Amino acid sequence: MSNPTLAIQSFVAVSWFGRGLKSGIAKDRNQLVPLFRTSHLTSLRGLLGKAVLNGLILVAALAIAAPRLAHAEAHLLIEADTGRVLEAENATIPWYPASVTKIMTAYVTLKAVKEGKLTLDTLLTVSPTAASQSPSKMGFKPGTQVTVDNALKMMMVKSANDMAVVLAEGVGGSIDGFADMMNDTAQKLGMTQTHYVNPNGLPADGHVTSARDLGILARAFLHDLPEYEYYVHIPAIRFGRRVTQNFNKLIGRYPGADGFKTGFICASGYNLVASATRNGKRLIAVVLGASSGQMRAVRAAQMLERGFAQNSLGWLKPSLGAVENLVPVDASPPNLRDEMCGGHRHKPASDEDDVAGNGTPGSTPTGDTNPMFYTAGLQPQVVNPAALIAGPADTVEPVVVYTGPTRTGAGLIAAVAADTASQETPKAKGRKKARIAAKKPDEPKGDAKAEPKAAARPGAAKQANAKPEAKPTAAASDGTAKPARPKPVAAKKPKPASSDAKPSG
To answer: Which residues pair with 106 in a beta bridge?
Structure first.
């Protein structure tokens, strides 16, 4: 195949066939969906020859299908402004969203704020239902009050499930009422593969979405709520003495990263919706089903790098159209519970994860899952995403969050101090009291304490004996004087001479 034109045509054919083959792999991992008509294969045979075509098909199947059978993931990369799809892999397969659900919770809440139904300063109360949610959560007791603003910050950074319910009950009256609002919004936005049951993404029958729908939602958030975009890229929050970094590892590490949200449950794997902007161009990446928090960030960074590094070879990539035009797949979501949490694999209850894909720090592979632009060295070298994600985040001052009404100045300082004190356990309080007591000199108690002090004063004993035998007495009811009761330290006083006086003691 020395002819350059024929070589390029063959490359395009492999890419075209490979892309179709990848998108046709069913999630039961045992079935390939036939995507090509006989006429298509006949045309290719005429172009390349039967032997060449068969060889290319075999190579494409081995190179593309085999890795997908090892682990299920869904990827999507789109332009935020236009919705144009730059990459899509299993993007229309239904998926369990986990905590990326909270993007919709924030969207519905902030739409209500924008429409004047409540304000960011509105106080909401933690109900027993909210307090009973599984971690990750703030852990507030029922009856605790928090503003919409602080609840949003806690939910989006710490992924607090209790705060999601607080917002849902405050905006929709109940979890079910808010879920109806979420589903109505999803329908209006064209999220045809999405159905919500709760506001936090904890496991529930029928709670599903897709990478396609999450891309649509992220675009809607940026377009409809630009004034509230701040909530999707807060690097860290401080509540009392506790500091929580954003679980989205791109924030503060990947150049231009400016949103959105992470998620994890055993059935879904590690999910991430992320956005980044460079030179006025904003991209949105969606990763579903990654094997760790580190891996989902690396996958997103790899896609974003390719999107920002478009070059003259871009014409080789078939146009995928707009994200809304991706055709949904009618299937059940893959359940990754055995892969994520089966056997002896310990996984956290939330999507906080500081370990790489196979449980070993630094083991995140740097290879790419899209062979089309990494074949024959056609893609220019880019920044190593794994190295970026593994490094420390930019140092920033955490955003302070607190309970109670909106505060400023001295009131805010007092609120933070109260929250800090509330975080001390009884054992910690006991240690604190012990430290304070240890700093004070030992002092005798009772009379033993008073006597040394009296002896230390010059002439103290003499002064004590010089006291008058009795203080002036008050008049009795019969007009006679009532002698004072003697103090224990004084000498025994003689009885009064008058027979009308009452005896002392």
So the answer is: none
- The proportion of the chain whose per-residue pLDDT surpasses 90, expressed as a percent, equals 54
Whether 76 shows a pLDDT value over 80: the answer reads yes
Q: Cα(279)–Cα(160) distance, rounded to whole angstroms?
A: 34
271 backbone φψ class: left, alpha, beta (φ>0; ψ -120 to 50): beta
Q: How far apart are CA 294 and CA 361, in angstroms?
A: 9
Q: What average pLDDT does this structure show over 204-227?
A: 97
> What residues are labeled active site?
99, 102, 159
Question: How far is residue 252 CA from its own chain's centroid?
Answer: 15
The percentage of residues in the chain with a pLDDT greater than 70, rounded to a whole number, is 60
Which are the contacts of 64, defined by CB distance < 8 A and separation ≥ 6? 18, 21, 22, 371
Q: Do the Cβ atoms of 52 and 10 come closer than 8 Å?
A: yes
Confidence of residue 170 (pLDDT cuts 50, 70, 90): very high
Q: How far is CA 339 from the centre of its chain?
A: 22
Place of tokens 């990827």: 75
Instruction: Report the mean per-residue pLDDT for the chain.
Output: 76
CA angle 96, 97, 98 (to 5 degrees): 100
**Torsion-angle region of 310 (φ positive above 0: left; ψ -120 to 50: alpha; else: beta):** beta
Across 245-258, b (16+ Cβ under 10 Å) vs e yields: bbbbbbbbbbeebb
Cα-only R_g, the chain: 36
Instruction: State the DSSP code for 249.
Output: T
Alpha-carbon span 422 to 431, nearest angstrom: 15
Residue 366 has pLDDT above 70, yes or no: no
Question: Which residues, 6 or more positions from 202, have their beta carbon under 8 angstroms from its beta carbon?
Answer: 133, 134, 161, 265
Report pTM: 0.69
Beta strand 85-89 pairing with 399-401? unpaired
Q: What is the β-pairing status of strands 257-265 and 269-278? A: antiparallel
Strand-pair category, 281-290 with 269-278: antiparallel
pLDDT over 90 (residue 99) = yes
Query: Can you give the length of the chain in residues?
Result: 505
* Greater pLDDT, 228 or 368: 228
Crossing angle (nearest 10°) for helices 50-60 and 38-48: 120
